[in-house]
């Protein structure tokens, strides 16, 4: 039996005995792609749909519709090496934050020297310290180098730099958000701030991964997330600060419009207007609890976080995989309905 498995945009072909079971396929994937069986989820179309550990001991030839033109198997899961690397990065970020907190506490205990006039800044007041200290594109998505350029543009934006220096925002990590992991049939999240500025995530890409969103819309979302460095709740203080940051960014960058990253960038003019009308979700308030660790962790290991008025709450990796699966199933349903209408 010859089967093609799709994982992170790459196809893998396997030859299995005719009496192979779903458990045999999972074991084979674990040994070749180094994804633990307990972290595997198989989205099988058109039926039987999503399968996850523990896999039923059913023969593949009895459950797979191999002759269907829509037959496809998609593997959802993160390799062990990638999980280890991301966990190591999270631990490194945590150590840096602890060292920075210790240094700040030590500095606060010392007498504050009188400031000089005339616009001369001391080393501790350098604007270079108020920035995003690390940029992280998602390497498993297409063209991560373009995402890195987008993140660099946001970091170096004159308006963003001015606002961060004025409010003394120092963010260890700015990264992109995987649209599929933050999309459901009810909502699409545009940004996220963890632990009041430990990590900021932004939805850079279009839902279909075929381009990038309007720069000015993303920059507005970033202003929103920067305000969460001070206020977690969406209260009056938060919205006042968000409006102030947006005005400061616009004033400091009055010579620059929303230029495209490249000729292939997608412009969605309704994005920000849709947010104001409730069509999109900017975020679910400031997330708190745990460290920024991707892959391999259960939902309860990340921390409960803050909940929104609608009852939504931040999810861990297992929860994100569920969101990814639901988003994939929703797209398949829409494609099927569109096919029926065309026929």
Question: Mind explaining what this structure looks like?
Answer:
This protein is an alpha/beta fold. Among the domains are: 2-79, Ubiquitin-like (UB roll); 132-252, Zincin-like, CATH 3.30.2010. Helix content is 40%, strand content 12%. The protein contains 10 helices and 9 strands. It has helices spanning 22-33, 60-63, 80-109, 144-156, 158-167, 215-227, 236-252, 270-276, 299-302, 317-342, and strands at residues 2-7, 10-15, 41-45, 49-52, 72-76, 135-136, 173-176, 191-194, 199-202. The chain has a 5-stranded mixed sheet. A hairpin with a 4-residue loop joins strand 8 (191-194) and strand 9 (199-202). The longest helix has 30 residues, at 80-109. The two termini are 32 Å apart. Residues 115-125, 257-273 and 293-320 have low confidence and may be disordered.
Spatial gap, N to C terminus: 32 Å
Characterize the largest beta sheet: strand count, sense, and whether it forms a barrel: 5 strands, mixed
Q: Mind telling me which CATH architecture of the domain at 132-252 this is?
A: 2-Layer Sandwich
Succession of helices and strands:
EEHEEHEHEHHEEEHHHHH
Strand order of the largest sheet: 2-1-5-3-4
β-strand amount = 5-15%
Kindly state the percentage of residues in helix: 25-40%
Low-confidence spans: pLDDT under 50, at least 5 residues?
Answer: 115-125, 257-273, 293-320
At the first level of CATH, the class of the domain at 132-252 is Alpha Beta
Shape summary: elongated
Helix/strand class: alpha/beta
Q: Give Rg in angstroms.
A: 23 Å
CATH fold-level assignment of the domain at 132-252: Zincin-like
Number of E strands: 9
Q: Please tally the helical runs, counting DSSP H or I stretches of 4 or more residues.
A: 10
Domain WLM: 121-333
Biased composition (Basic and acidic residues): 318-343
Region (Disordered): 300-343
Organism: Aspergillus glaucus CBS 516.65
